[in-house]
Fold this protein.
Amino acid sequence: MTAVRIPGRARVVVALAAFIGLVAFTWPFVVAPGKFGSSYAPPLIFGALLVLVLAVVIAEISAGGIDAKALAMLGVLSAVNAGLRPLGAGTAGVETVFFILVLAGRIFGPGFGFTLGCTSLFASALLTGGVGPWMPYQMFGCAFVGMLAGLLPKARPRLEVPMLAAYGAFSGYLFGFLLNLSFWPFSTDPNSSIAYLPGLPFTEQWHRYLLFDLATSLGWDTGRAVTTFTAVLVVGPAVLTVFRRAARRANFEPTVRFEAPDGTGTGTGTGTGTAPVPPAVRSAETAPS
């Protein structure tokens, strides 16, 4: 059971943002040349992605999906990831932020993981001066990593950490595979067998990209996968315990006020819904002393 639940409206916004993000990555395969020119398509996509990220956060806050405690947790973990990222900085593929995304997405849920991926990379870009046209792609690549971690199936306690470690390795390759799509469509070379060539059928275009990904980033992605796999195995059990304890102490479930039909009740509780004050309690409260 996820610690931070999001209501239906916020789920729709998250799903819409994820869908548009996926389209932003895969547009070279689905957009016909000449209908959406590559010279101005990326800026439009970047703007839409940033607006949708903001909409996700606003929708979750306004709908009660992220209360003050969950928002504080989001800020703390975003700051932690922003501080951890320069320690690896992608050198030889070593990345130090993905294991936090995987573990936080697992405990706090897919909506929280999606938002944490976006805010972590945004804070890191501001801290390291990495703001550029690649930033929205990085934000959504990490958002997918956190969201998919929250969607993993339940597992027995002794199998949970190995499952998360295996997913962490997979997410290292997934992130690199998606990020290559941010610049591959602009490295056109008619004489190359792996460069993007507008107008080719989907199967040929897909074959070219697979070769491009294997030739240019397999080593880097392997470093990221090994780093995340090792970090989850080594520190994953302790971090999962800390996250679960924090979730229990924070009690992210909304507080409910129990009111009488006339609105005079003052009881409080934790859970969802409201309950009327029993008649016996009302008569005892209104009886003359």
